[in-house]
Structures are given as structure tokens and as C-alpha cells.
Hints:
The complex is a heterodimer.
Chain A: H1 3-25, H2 31-36, H3 43-54, H4 57-70, H5 75-99, H6 104-111, H7 115-148, H8 152-202, H9 207-210, H10 224-234, H11 247-263, H12 265-268, H13 277-313, H14 323-330, E1 334-336, E2 356-358, H15 362-365, H16 367-370, H17 375-413, H18 419-442, H19 448-472, H20 478-502, H21 521-538, H22 545-555
Helix pairs in contact in A: 1-8, 1-17, 3-8, 3-13, 3-17, 4-13, 4-17, 5-11, 5-13, 5-22, 6-7, 7-8, 7-17, 7-18, 7-19, 7-20, 8-13, 8-17, 8-18, 10-13, 11-19, 11-21, 17-18, 19-20, 19-21, 20-21
Chain B: H1 2-34, H2 36-39, E1 43-44, E2 47-48, H3 49-103
Antiparallel strand pairs in B: 1-2
Helix pairs in contact in B: 1-3
Amino acid sequence: MSSVQLWTYLFIGLSFGLYIAIAVWSRAGSTHEFYVAGGGVHPVTNGMATAADWMSAASFISMAGLISFLGRDGTFYLMGWTGGYVLLALLLAPYLRKFGKFTVPDFIGDRYYSRSARLVAIFCAISISFVYVCGQMQGAGIVFSRFLEVDITTGVIIGMTVVFFYAVLGGMKGITYTQVAQYCVLIFAYMVPAIFISIMMTGNAIPQIGFGSELTPEYGGGYLLDRLDNLSVELGFAPYTEGQRSTQDVFFITAALMFGTAGLPHVIIRFFTVPSVRAARVSAAYALLFIGVLYTTAPAVAAFAKTNLMNTVNNAVYEELPEWFRTWENTRLISFEDRNGDGRVQYLADPAVNELTVNRDIMVLANPEIAGLPDWVVALVAAGALAAALSTAAGLLLVISTAVSHDLLKRSLMPQITEKQELRYARIAIFVAILVAGYFGINPPGFVAEVVAFAFGLAAASFFPAIVLGIFYKRMNRQGAIAGMVAGFSFTALYIIYFKFIAPELSTPAHWLFGISPEGIGTVGTLINTAVALTICRFTAAPPRDIQQMVEEIRLPGH
Amino acid sequence: MRDEHARAYWKANVRILTTLLSIWFFVSFVCGILLADFLDNFRFAGFKLGFWIAQQGSIYVFIVLIIVYVFWMDKLDSRYQANTKAANLKAANSQSASDEDSQS
Lengths: 559, 104
């Protein structure tokens, strides 16, 4: 066993031991504890837990890689996935906390005084969370298989077992405190290699500043970003710091990701766990601060990794390439085909002469090795990626479980069950959800990876307008809200299904509605939802007096 | 009395939201996307300005916006609580005064 593997076992073993210890310590005894961790979570704790809840396998493993291949256009991930928190903090979190129930369908069902509204919300919450959770399990499986050379099935089962422990035993309470630990693990694992590389390449220890600095003489001097632009152009790619996508598409994708972020149920429910409205505001600020650490580092990592890759690989003699190249070749994340038979690697934009294919995930997973960092730093990445995948998976599983036990059973189908029974159903639901998610993690249906990105569009087009209108427009009624959610969700889902699955060959700017890609269509869905809701609402009866009073109550400060 | 304060509170709240969200929109969508190419003409250190706002600056602004929001709302909350308390006290006083009147 190599030294990297030993370190990897050590880090993963230690971190998993920690999660299980927390699980045993924080068992939930009531539905109040299971759903909202007893409602007494400190704002800083909740901020950290929200950050871990939010930053998924995709943020940790894929985002920097996506940005390094998209260059300037990668911006929509950065702004979209952070700007949404401003909306969440200002328009949703404090009011939903004041409302003071357990779930998002709770709010929709009560505010729109309707079982149908609640059922629509349950359907949206479960489908959005489900799509998302399969991706996390798959991410966990991939990390296990690549770093420890166990097969994906074993990897997913280990991941499932750990989540099972703290999610089934502790519910939201167990999840909250493990997420805090997971945040610490993942941010440490992300920052250490980034700082190392920044020092190596620019002599500056802060990656956020390093990527605007000059390269050290060993790397040829000059500003890093200028160098990256020049290298890209030399090899036939577009300059790194210039955008390729149309401005309106970038605009709509950014907006869809922002509205979606604010409408994702697993993030919203985190704000039910704090003791007061003020605590909800404060913890939103902490959450974005903690998230911002990773999100401002990612574009730096992207730029470092891309420069490094082009420097190391292009025109290098294949036989003389460092060891990491072969390790990652074995996993097929990177592949080389010597088309012109000169024994050197040509990495070029033109597909006819290019000899190197690079998977974007390698930018984070292999970055420490490419930069020649010590073995323990390489091993950290595995523990960090697993922390990111498992923390998000747990948050999503909880949404699915509460939607079933609380919203569907207790509030809709069998209101007579006792709290004990409800708690038992919640545990059964989360257990079943883990099994199903695990199954799809091992046998990923081809569409999962693609669809994860679309969960945002769906959340944007369904929940975001329904909740915001419910708080800011007292006159909004049941008919308007239901019609809006159904219209927004179906429009967005159909647009995505059409261009991704029915007619993928037509998915080009020329065929898109107003040149908006399926990734950005959620913004149009949000607008349709709002327009339909406002129109229908005008022609139907105002909500009852007590509902209007409830809205007034939500708007005032207090507990 | 309480209703009046509640209305004033909500109005002030909406004003705070409008101000902060205008900045949010301006920084991300206007500077980070619509005007980014123009802003790229300006440089500091190794960064083009538009590129820096899009990949770094906007995120810092988002964090500051939420922190400012927390402080503004704290101030607004305490003003509202002081006002309603004063109003309740006044109502209670006039209540007890009229009680005394009716007794004499």
C-alpha cells in the first residue's frame, strides 16, 4: 500500500469515527429534535452546518474544474451559488423562522390553507431533493474507488452506513453537529492544497490574492492570469479571462442559480433550527462567510491548476511524465492518445490534433499531485470530498424523510398518529431514502449527473416565488399559488426534458427560447410562476382573515 | 396603536430590503455581467476589473450586504420594541387613570 493510501485511510477513518461519535452523542428523542434539532442551535453553529449542507460533492470536487475549463464563463456558478444567500437572508429565512414550523411544505400548506398546495409542495420537495441526493452518493462512491481502489459499490455502502448512523439516530440534531465537523474537515482539506500551490507558484500564501499576482521566476514570471490567457491562445483555446457564452445566457443562468439556491428546501430548513428571527439573520451571514471562503478560493485553484496542467503536460515527452499522470490514466480521468506518433503530448483546442482528454474533476482531485505536494496533503482531499458529499446527502435525506412522515402522513393522510409513531415513521422514511439513494449511487441512471444542475431551475420555478409572494403579498391566495407552482415547475421541467432527453441534438443557442440554455430556463420558470400566480389571484377570492393575520404576524420581529 | 407601529416597521423593513437588493443587483448583474467587458479595460495588479468583480468582488459584497442587513434590522427591531412598549405603557396609564376617575 502506498503512503498516500495509508494517509487516506487514516484521515477517512478519523473523520468517520468522529461523525459516528457525534451521532451516538446526539440522539433525537422527539420529533422537535428530529426535525429542527430542538430549535436551539447557535447561529454560528448553524452557519457552519448550513455551509456544509450547501457545499456538495459538486462544489468540492467539480466546481474548480468546471471554472478552469469555462474560464470567465464559470462566473455564473460563483455568483449564482453565493448571491442566492442574499435573497435567502433578506427575503425568506427570517420570516420562515418567525412562522416557526418544521418544513417548507408546512409553510406552503398553512399559508395557502390548502391540502393540494401542501401536496404540490411535497412533490416538489421530494423530487428536487431526490435528484440531488443520488449525485452525492455517486460522488462518495467515486472518491472511495479512486483513492482507495475499493469498488464503487463498497464505497457507496460505507458512505450509506455512516449517514445511516447519524441521520437515523439523530435526525436534524445529529445531522447539525456532524455537519459542523464536516465543514471543518472539508474547508481544511480544500484550503491546505490551495495555499501550498499559491505559495509555490506566486509566493503569496493567500490564494485569493495569489491568482492576481506575478508568478515566481521558476514559473516564468509575469502575471498569472496574463500567462494563462497567452497559454490558452497559443494552444488554440479562447483567452481564459474572456467570456464565450452570450451575455443573456450568463445573466439567466446566474439568476436561475440564485433563485434556486434560495428555494432549495434542505437549505431553508436549516433556518428553522435557530432560536429566534435575529439568530436566523445572523446565521445567514455566517453561512455565507463560511461558504465564501471556499467560493473565493475555487477560482484561484481553477487558474493555478489550469496553468500548471498546461505547463507540465503540453509538449512533454510521454515517457518522462511524472507518476501522477499514470495513476490518473488508470482511472480514465485523463487519457492520452499519441496520434502523430512523436511520443509527446499535444494538448490543443483543435479536436483533430489534440491528444489529451482531461476530466474536469481532476483539477481538484489531482491538483495536489500535479503540484508535487506532500502525500498527506494529497490524502486530505479524499476526506474533504467525502465530508462534502455526506453532509449534503444527510441534509437532503432529512427533507425527504420529513416530507413523508410530517407533511404527508401527519399533516395530510393520518393526523391521528402520536408523536412517537411520527418519529418512528420519520426514521423509517430516512432509512428507505438512504437505501434508494444508495441504489442509484451504485447504479447511476445516466441522467443523474446532468439533472443535479437542474434541481436549481426546478426549485427556482416552484418554491421561490410561492414563498416570497406568501410573505410579501398578503392578498396572494391558494388558487394563485398552486397555479403558479404547477405552471413554473412543469414549464421548466418540460423545457429541460425536451432539450436534454428528447431532442438533445437541437440544444443549441439557435433553437433555445430567447437564446437561454436549459441551465438558465429556471429564471423564465420563476417569472412564469409569478405572472400566473398574480393573474389568477386577481380573479379569485382573497385569503381568509386569519391567514392575512398570520402574514402580518410573520412580518413582525419576535420569536 | 400597535398596528400603526407595525405598519411603520414593515415600511422601514421594505425600504432596507429595496436598498440592499438594488446594490446586490447592481454589483452582480450589472457590474459582473452586463458591464463586465467594459470594466475589463481597467486593471489592478494582475486582475481585469470586470473579471475580478465577477469571480471575487461580488462574493465579498454579498457577505457585507448580509452583515449590514443584520445591523440595520437590529436597530429597527429595537426601535419598534421601544415604541410598542411606550405605547402599551401609555395605554395602561390612561386605562388606570380612567379607572380612578370612575371610582371617585
